[in-house]
Amino acid sequence: MSSSSDYGSHTWGLLLTVDQQRENVQKEFLLQVTGDLHIGGLMLKLVEKMNISQDWSDYAFWWEQKKCWLLKTHWTLDKCGVQADAKLLFTPQHKMLRLRLPNMKTVRLKVSFSTMVFRAVSDICKILNIRRSEELSLLKQSGDTLKKKKKKDKNSKEPVTEDILNLCDSPVSSGLAANPGLYSKTMTPIYDPVSGSPASSTITWFSDSPLTEQNCNVLALSYPNCSPEMLAEMYQPRTLADKAKLNAGWLDSSRSLMEQGILEDDQLLLRFKYYTFFDLNPKYDAVRINQLYEQARWAILLEEIDCTEEEMLIFAAIQAYHVSKLSLSSEAQDSTCESEVDEVEAALSNLEVTLEGGSTSNILEDITDIPKLADNLRLVRPKKLSLKAIKSYWFIFRDTSISYFKNKESAQGEPIEKLNLKGCEVVPDVNVAAKKFGIKLLIPVADGMNEVYLRCDNEDQYARWMAACVLASKGRTMADSSYQPEVQKILSFLQMKNMSSQATSDPESVDMKPECFVSLRYTKKYKSKQLTARILEAHQNISQMSLVEAKLRFIQAWQSLPEFGLSYYIVRFKGSKKDDVLGVSYNRLIRIDMATGDPITTWRFSNMKQWNVNWEIRQVAIEFDQNVSIAFTCLSADCKIIHEYIGGYIFLSTRSKDQNETLDEELFHKLTGGQE
Predict the structure, then answer these.
(1) Residue from 622, 608, 609, 620 nearest 572 by CA
(2) Whose CB has fewer CB within 10 Å in the chain, the N or C terminal residue?
(3) Would you state the pLDDT for residue 327?
(4) How many CA atoms lie within 13 A of 401 on its CB side?
């Protein structure tokens, strides 16, 4: 009989492959090992066997059969489960990756293939100077979205050469901590707030960064649009099922690139995944704002999000005359110090007024005043078997509720009905040209949604009531400091719509291609001169904006669209015999009829008690207040993607400016990781 010591000393052969770039160098090595040898010792034996002098610090073992990294160097082979049949590849952890940015530019840089995607995206964003990396992630384009492009490529005779920005000299490539690039952690302004171009002194200070001034301009400034022919070649979703394909390829943030089948020099899309853009600041976020603007612009051009004709013309006006022209003008790229001086003077004058107590009386008035709205509005209730019933009532808006009465005189008594707007959906129903100012309210009830329409008489009335409804849906009253800014934002948007609904007489003198700034639907509907005229009118109202203001206005208009922030997935609800579409937003889930596109039910995250996933049958189960529970399986993507979306949005809702921009990565993985 053999003793335990004899058994423990038994050696066996393990074949190791080295990922070596040099030619005429041995790539495979057979080492005699024991089960109690730790991973670090195995690395040492292999390096000694190779006898090649180079830096091996970035190398680690990749287990091909198990699709996992062996990164815990103190673990033994027995603890890892490595036996003689294991195929281990000794390979660098940082590899080249091509990233397609929202502005359709491709950058090539070294990324960690061994860390979780969440950490890898954080390192990428530091190189690219994009704050709030938690809002972005990596997306693998699905085969369906590439089919149309491949067909077009076959028909084209000339080879397509892609312009790639090479950032392979970044510090991440050596496995070191990412250099902050042009992002100053002291929050010192590093861009001209008007032009968005990097300050020359900053470039000098961070001269070791791969982001030179020229490269940074490529990421922070917008360039001329593609031609209508190129637009026609790109994938454009036509149905909700098509839109669901766009969101099927999000990578798992809790696993590494290598574990998800991503190979060296593959191409992925870097996109804003979560539509909650925290602390957008023109001083520090030139690249972030531009990439966000570009993602919004392409979503509108490719009709990934629906908008009306008036809204499309507003978007076209901002693109055509502000972003494209200002980006190309020399004025936009001149760094000026005057704006910074003005800001300092303004801050000093504000401080002086505050110290003198000039606005004390106004503050006291605001505290004692209970804000409310009272107006004659028309109430519209859709009826299934008859025409819509429209009737005028006296409405009072107080706190987060709307009460309506037969007339003004009866307002002292009991209301006909009181509508609590907390947690409801608020959708604009506006046609400026037709003088239609409506507010659509979808109020959640036990068996679905209670649909109510309010009709206002004019723009001012609509702006006041719409702003109050939007805040009430979030649980805030008109006493909130954001109420007046919300009113002004709605009024300015209505003003732009009003300008876009008019026509001009002589667009001949303007040199532009309007087809580059609207989706294909409108290029087929209108002639070039007609589009030019209408875009010109919409532009009159925004001609005095700076470059960054124009981009921010574009982003705000995008956020005002009813479908903004919805990511679609095809699901089958438990107990249902047909497929539905599930829309995932920053604060709610929406069940949508796939055939008609109409919302069926909305569930708010604020009412959610818990959610979990049955990984065996890939089913997501969610419990809400009032004993409401749902369960569904995802058909268009892995259920882990929806699970991560829900947990990710809840994680982002915990952010605050007091955190000094440090993230609780452990909490993110706890909310999004799941236990498979």
Answers:
(1) 620
(2) N
(3) 58
(4) 7
Amino acid, res. 469:
C
Which tokens belong to 362?
């106004």
- Given the structure tokens 């009024």, which residue do they identify? 491
Q: How many Å is the Cα radius of gyration of the chain?
A: 29
Residue 102: what pLDDT? 93
Residue 251 tokens, joined = 């990578």
Please state, in angstroms and rounded to a whole number, the distance separating the CA atoms of residues 587 and 565. Answer: 10
8 A C-beta contact, residue 564 and residue 299: no
Helix (H) or strand (E) holding 8: helix 4-8
Element at 89 (helix H, strand E)? strand 88-92
Tell which phi-psi region holds residue 505, choosing left (phi > 0), alpha (psi between -120 and 50) or beta.
Answer: alpha
Q: What is the mean pLDDT of the chain?
A: 80
- Number of C-beta neighbours around residue 250 at 10 A: 23
Angle in degrees, CA 428, 429, 435, rounded to 5: 120
The rounded distance, in Å, linking the Cα atoms of 122 and 336 is 31
Q: Is 452 left (phi over 0), alpha (psi -120 to 50) or beta?
A: beta
Distance CA 127, CA 132 (A): 13
Q: Report yes or no: 442 and 511 within 8 Å, Cβ to Cβ.
A: no
* pLDDT at residue 188 in the model: 44
User: Could you identify the residue written with the tokens 């004019």?
Assistant: 458
Identify the bridge partners of residue 612 per DSSP, sorted by sequence position: 621
Give the residue among 309, 285, 658 at the shortest CA–CA distance from 501. Answer: 309
Please report, for residues 93, 179, 401, 512, the alpha-carbon distance to residue 175 in angstroms, rounded to integers and kept in the order given. Answer: 8, 11, 56, 48
What are φ and ψ of residue 319, in 5° steps? -65, -55
- pLDDT score of 430: 85
* 284 vs 184: CA distance, rounded Å: 8
What are the tens digits of pLDDT across the range 580-638?
A: 999 999 999 999 999 999 999 999 998 999 999 999 999 999 999 989 999 999 999 99
Among 305, 288, 308, CA closest to 296: 305
Strand partners, 429: 438
pLDDT mean over 109-131: 94
Tokens of 398: 């107080």
The full set of domains in the chain, from first to last, is 11-92 (3.10.20.90), 371-478 (2.30.29.30), 567-672 (2.30.29.30)
Q: Residue 227: which residues within 8 A CB-CB, separation 6 or more?
A: 513, 515, 516
In a 13 Å sphere around the CA of 70, the CA atoms on its Cβ side amount to 29
Residue 338: Cβ within 10 Å count: 8
Q: Is the dihedral of CA 39, 40, 41, 43 positive or negative?
A: positive
